[in-house]
Amino acid sequence: MTAIEFKRFSFAYRGKGNVLQDIELTVPQGNFTVISGPCGAGKTTLCMAINGLVPHYFGGSVAGEVQVAGCNTLKRKVSDLALQVGSVMEDYESQLVAMTAADEIAFGLENRGIAKPEIKIRTEQALSLVGLSGKESSEVGSLSGGQKQRLAIAAVLATEADILVLDEPASALDPEGAEELYALLHSLNREKGLTIVVVEHDLSRVLPYIDQLVIMDGGCIVKAGGLEETLSQIYSDGKFINYVPAIYQLKFSHEKMLASRLPDWRTEREALADLSRLLVLKQLEDPKSA
To answer: How far apart are CA 108 and CA 114, in angstroms?
Structure first.
């Protein structure tokens, strides 16, 4: 089944040229899709086209359509889309409106008519998932940037939306926090079947989890497909080689040197194990090389 589908979708903010141009993209249900590319490529606007903020909130001209769960977003209210699409935008602090962490999560649930006992359960579960257990009574203003970002994610998780759209969700986190966050998103993706769409400039953070990789530039999709195929294409093209993680640049250079394909590498551990194996084989074939 298809969770999200862009059909020749173009969008321009009022008084400006197209920010998105002829976007064709399908995100299957249960997919972990990562979007990357330079600043100004249209990544954030693409995210807002999924949750309906574009064009319903920001306004502008539209061509084509975006479908979420088979329904045209142009024909649905943002509030209705929010039942299916949970969003954490890059300016996550603007999403926080309550005094305490528990109130922040309860706010959206109360607006949906969720009973208080259920709200309490969901609040505790969501805070636990993002590592904020015991912070229910903490004032939002007293939280660190990373904790606020986790809280925004927790508020989205509590709604139990089927699709999560996150724009640079690790921007305020240290490397360990980013690793924990993406491990959490991967767990939600695999165990609960949630469809995940993430904007991330540092692909090394998400290599183990990517099902579909999308590279954008100038409002267009430059490349889209499976991880290995897409990274190989942008490595060969050269223009976006900076987006190819170091271990994959190493992999592709070795493949060219050896004139043979190496297994997929999703982690540095896998890369080191494979390179060690190649070194042992080379030493067995040519002891003098040792």
So the answer is: 9
Q: What is the mean pLDDT of residues 147-152?
A: 91
Give Cα separations from 243 to 35, 212, 213, 233, 235 (angstroms). Answer: 11, 15, 11, 11, 9
Give me the DSSP letters along 158-174: HTT-SEEEEESTTTTS-
Q: What does the pLDDT look like over 217-243, one tens digit per residue?
A: 999 999 999 999 999 999 999 999 999
Three-state SS at 256: helix
- Under 8 Å between Cβ of 30 and 194: yes
Helices 116-129 & 145-158 angle (0-180, nearest 10): 130
Query: How long, in residues, is the chain?
Result: 290
The two three-digit tokens of residue 251, written as one number? 């992999």
**How far lies 116's CA from each of 39, 83, 123, in Å?**
42, 18, 10
Tokens, residue 191: 């165990």
Exposure pattern of 202-213 as b/e (b: 16+ CB <10 Å)?
ebbbbbbbbbbb
Residue 77 DSSP symbol: -
With a cut of 80, say whether residue 22 has pLDDT above it: yes
Tell me the average pLDDT across 40-57: 96
Cα–Cα distances in angstroms (integers) from residue 162 to residues 81, 92, 192, in the given order: 11, 20, 9
- Domain range annotation of the chain: 2-240, 245-290
Whether residue 228 contacts residue 264, with contact meaning beta carbons closer than 8 Å, is answered with yes
Alpha-carbon span 112 to 190, nearest angstrom? 27
CA atoms within 13 A on the CB side of 218: 3
The CATH architecture of the domain made up of 2-240 is 3-Layer(aba) Sandwich (3.40)
In the chain, the N- to C-terminal Cα span, in Å, equals 53
